[in-house]
Amino acid sequence: MTLLLGPPGAGKTTLLQALAGKLDIDLKSSGKISYCGHELEEFVPRKTSCYIGENDLHFEDLTVCESLDFSRKCLGVGERYELLVELIRRDMEEAEMNKANPLIDVFLRALASSGKKASFMTNYILKILELESCADTIIGNEMRKGTSGGEKKRVTTGEMLVGLSQVLFMDEISTGLDSSTTFQICKFLRQMVHLMDMTMLVSLLQPPPETFQLFDDIILLAEGEIVYQGPGDNNVLEFFEHIGFKCPPRKGIADFLQEVISKKDQQQYWFKDEPYTYVSVPEFARLFASFHAGQNLAAELEVPYDKSRIHTTALVREKYGISKWELFKICFSREWLLMKRSSFVFIFKTTQIMIMATITFTVFFRSEMPVGTIEGGQKFLGAMFFSLLNMMFNGVAETSMTLSKLPVFYKQRESLFYPAWAFGLPIWILRIPLSLVESGIWVILTYYTIGFAPNASRFFRQFLAFFGIHQMAFSLFRLIAAIGRTPVVADTLGICILQIVFALGGFVVSQTLGASKGVILDEANGNSEESAEGTEMRIRKSSKIENTSRGMVLPFQPLTIAFNHVNYYVDIPTEKKVKGKQEHRLQILRDVSGAFRPGILTALVGVSGAGKTTLMDVEERQVDTLKEVLLYQAFQRTKPHLLELAVIANKTISILRIGGQVIFAGPLGPYSKHLTEYFEAIPGVPKIKNGYYLAICMLEISDPAIKSQLDIDFAEIYANSALYQTNQEFVQELSQTQQDLMDLLGAMYGVVLFLGGMNASPVQSVIDTERIVLYRERAAGMYSALPYAFGQVNTN
Description:
It comes from Senna tora. This is Pleiotropic drug resistance protein 2. InterPro entries: AAA+_ATPase, ABC2_TM, ABC_transporter-like_ATP-bd, ABCG_dom, P-loop_NTPase. One of its GO terms (molecular function) is ATP binding. The structure is a single chain. This protein is of the alpha/beta class. Among the domains are: 324-524, no CATH class; 561-735, no CATH class; 739-795. The protein has a six-stranded mixed beta sheet with strand order 4-5-6-1-7-8, sandwiched between helices. α3 (64-74) packs across α6, α3 packs parallel to α7 and α14 (324-341) crosses α18 (420-450). The longest helix has 42 residues, at 738-779.
């Protein structure tokens, strides 16, 4: 049993971690470490040895006994057949020599047995560490009352001692403990070392004299160099007296060793007659190498260790002492216990879902949700979006819950308690029932009250979509917590990622894969009202047509085509060019603008050569192959259950003249009233005779001969008319899709939503950290809560 002494910053923690095989692989290191002649690569050093750090990291909701028993199970203190056989052999040898100790025999047999007897080790550690009185007390933290600081330190030590590692490295285990408890713990450690042939290196800052006497050897470390290593009795005092420093009679040896290597305290221990000169740490190390203890140590290191002397089970070559299934069951039972201890959080989240669902269906109540209109459809989309938004934000609490578990997880993973999957898989499995309950509550309360399609299949599909988005939110925020690792970073990162998901949803990831797309399509394909009519279409329910109102059902989505300032040119063949003219291209369409809308029949009128076919070709943009055209036409065949095209009430006409110029574009009106009024209002145009066929009249007007005869440029008159300006505004309006407006409104809504979220979420972690100091300082009477609150408001 060796004591590691040294001032702060001497390198004690680094040395212990290096010996335990826990140094960061990114750090540059040199030298060789071996266990019984075997290098670290030949076995699993983190399982063979055990490193106990100076930080007390525990689950605050577990009791002391539960924490120790969990460590015992994970570290494989169950059935140890090889150890039991060895104990039986030694017991028989001692029985023949009449030296058997009944108490030790019972202890070791219980230690190596399986089943209920394995808890004997937990109870024994509780008794030795004087934790029996608080065995059923939760460990707690700064905000939750539990065990004291000294008891937490003993739990940190105890959860590693139950593992039966053959090598123990302990770093500052006396922090927060009184001298009596430190002595009892070290006495217990000494018994374990001597009775079970264990190797132990313990780092203590200033051990009392009675504790110092319990150690067999001592290592004095300073500035990263070993000043002395050897027996801790008179040999260490002899070494320093050999140099010229003597320990006073009533001075503790440990305190003397800490001060004699210090520059400011070294001189007071000088006792030789010659003048004092400061002895540096490298000089101490050089003098120790020439001292007989240092020479003996060097001689021992030069002799190779006989590997045949080591027992086959001394070095562990497997990372985990129990099977994967057992590890999963142990971690699953602990996570279930933690969920029960944190039941208030889950009950509160479920209650929050119920309240928000009630608010949602009262805002989007079915009596206020018109069916079959664009306005009503937007309300349904708003209800779906708000529902999915609540499912996403319901997972935010997972961030703080995961952050509280990460320090313990990292410590236990590094100590090879369990792999990462054994920690994460139970959390995911136990969140599935929670997602089912919360998603089910939301869908049950909102689906029929909002007025979604009353189909059982669509009800369950919406429930499945909400369940998936809820599980995704849980997993996303657990990932954010693992990446951020600190509350401030994780909360800020979580809000930013949420904003990115909502802003880029459907662009970075295809929209067809999104939950919102699935919910919307599921509702759109449903039939909210059995007798509902579309705005312009109706599905025939039987072979008998009961309603012949305007409209039809199309097997494709109606589209609006708008074109503005279209010009079209073709090259003039060389043999047809007119002499004296420099034009190489013939313009067929000149600044043509217009729009084709669903439900409105438009006639394109003009004499031969006006550019009608050219305009149609330009709008169609034919780039399909013959096979693609045939397949498209086959798919577009009208299905038997679709209604015929009803009588079109809205009709428009566009008139082109030769040269591809528009002379009229607008509605005809009843009995072509608007068309005739437009042309008759032009000075010089004769009145249209009653009974004269209007189509022939329009063709005559578009004839170039009429232009020359009347000396009227109809294209110029149309370009300067109010009708042209109205058409231009209409084309501009149709060119701006409704989705652009929805994107703008969505962006504004997202700014309002996430601006509050980005301020509200990160500030909670800051307040959670500051209130610990607030409670302590307020209890000390430094200030009241009111000025503290005013200071926070002014700062923000």
